[in-house]
Design brief:
TIM Barrel, 15 helices, alpha/beta, 2 domains, two-stranded antiparallel sheet
Length: about 475
């Protein structure tokens, strides 16, 4: 059985996040998306933690929770919801801002996970005792080092987990060009063995990470970092195993065992690939070389196409200057228009840290599937600007109602099944996404998302004549 987990999300209390991010709405929209397990998000925020304690109850699966009966979404999807409730895990994102080493300021975000509401409460109490202000922002800013934070949570319970968030993002990440480190060890020193995974982030994917040899030691996970309901599940991590095996410990052990360095022998049986013609499948040595705890295994990740991520290229948003790393190097890191420093993006940072050639693939690794959200595909197929257009929403809800969930449509339905419920142009768009026949132009840079192009200009012009 397959389980899709999005373990990095936020609440209505986090800065720059939608007020619709309530537990009831998150539960409902995860069912629409096809996300089985989600982080409760922001458990360090005082008011949000009170809601967690009030509204989440044990699911019957160790250390996983469900919404208490009677909770109704305030932003209900306009279609019947799948009956299976969403499972919640206790997770949060924390921003460590501190000085260490040569740089004056380090700004590093981390995802923190706890095996129970009780343990999450103990983490909150420990941070409050140390003077951390947890009530001002769902993504709390704390004035302590990454290493110190890790030491604190492990001292509370060794089952607590830290995963560096969106690892290459320029401003707030372990490898960020403006505030990070050059290695995991530089950040965590003797506690490095406790870091067994990193989150790739929207602007990077596994092939980019495989260029940094050190990252073979850790698993590469992907989560949405959703700031609004429609963005839930835009990146996720896929697990396979029996439903009875599902638990917090099994999930963490499956992630721990998904590091390429651990995958020397493919187990038997191999995990079944996600169905769907044209979906990316890795060659046999990489398929299924993933062992998990208690019968659960991490089979892969759903990935944003990195070019679409907000920090893939270098650039300067104010000047609309989008630069490939080679251009940045020629310009000495200076914006060609305003002559100020550009924001150095993820592609440049990977190149800077790389000690393996482009195209290098570990002997064994989990699969990954590039993904574009359904409403963006619909907008492109319909020739409409903006995923929030009424015409896009109408088609979206009709398709999801027929397919069951968004991810089922994008990943699992066969071409003939898609053709039976979608227009020929939309069916072709989904096929092109699966086949990787997508152009992102311009790529994302300095906080701007890349622009998705599934059809070329001639095809778009022909579509406009039909509208």
């Amino acid at each position: 059985m397959r389980f899709i987990a999005d373990l990095h999300t936020h609440s209505k209390y986090a800065r720059a996040c939608s007020p619709a991010l309530t537990l009831e709405n998150i539960d409902a929209w995860c069912r629409v998306k096809g996300v089985d397990i989600v982080s409760a998000g922001d458990f360090t925020h005082t008011k949000w933690f009170e809601e967690i304690k009030e509204k989440l109850v044990p699911s019957g699966r160790e250390s996983l929770y469900v919404l208490r009966d009677g909770g109704a979404p305030t932003s209900p999807p306009p279609i019947p919801l799948p009956k299976k409730p969403t499972l919640f895990m206790l997770g949060t994102e924390l921003a460590c801002i501190y000085s260490q080493g040569a740089r004056k300021v380090r700004r590093v975000h981390h995802c923190i996970y706890a095996p129970s509401i009780k343990v999450a409460g103990e983490i909150n109490a420990a941070l409050l005792t140390r003077g951390c202000k947890l009530g001002s922002d769902g993504r709390a800013i704390i004035g302590m080092s990454s290493k110190e934070l890790l030491k604190i949570i492990l001292g509370i319970d060794p089952r607590n987990v830290m995963i560096p968030a969106h690892a290459f993002t320029p401003w707030f990440a372990i490898f960020g060009s403006n505030s990070g480190f050059d290695s995991i060890k530089e950040c965590f020193e003797e506690l490095t063995p406790h870091i067994f995974a990193i989150e790739t982030g929207l602007s990077a994917d596994p092939p980019m990470c495989w260029r940094v040899r050190e990252l073979d030691r850790v698993a590469l996970v992907s989560f949405a970092d959703a700031h609004s309901l429609p963005n839930l599940g835009r990146e996720a991590t896929v697990f396979e195993g029996s439903e009875s095996a599902l638990s917090y410990d099994a999930i963490m052990e499956a992630i721990r065992n998904a590091a390429p360095a651990k995958l020397t022998q493919p187990p038997s049986p191999q995990p079944s690939p996600i169905k769907g013609e044209g979906v990316k499948k890795d060659p046999p040595p990489s398929v299924g070389g993933v062992r998990g705890g208690g019968g659960l295994r991490m089979s892969g990740t759903l990935e944003f196409i990195p070019d679409e991520g907000r920090y893939h290229y270098d650039g300067h948003r104010a000047c609309k200057a989008c630069l490939h790393p080679k251009e940045t190097k020629k310009l000495g890191g200076i914006c060609p228009k305003c002559k100020k420093l550009v924001t150095v993006g993820v592609l440049s940072r990977v190149e800077e840290l790389a000690n393996e050639p482009a195209g290098r693939v570990p002997l064994a690794h989990p699969q990954f599937w590039p993904l574009i959200e359904l409403d963006k595909i619909i907008a492109e197929a319909e020739g409409v600007k903006g995923r929030s257009a009424k015409s896009v929403k109408k088609v979206y809800w009709d398709l999801v109602a027929k397919a069951g969930t968004e991810l089922n449509l994008l990943l699992n339905l066969l071409p003939q099944e898609i053709a039976a419920i979608a227009s020929p142009r939309l069916a072709e768009a989904i096929k092109r996404v699966r086949d990787g026949k997508v152009k992102i132009d311009p790529p994302g840079y300095d906080g701007e998302y890349g622009v998705v192009n599934i059809f070329d200009e001639q095809e778009k012009a022909a579509q406009k004549k039909l509208l």
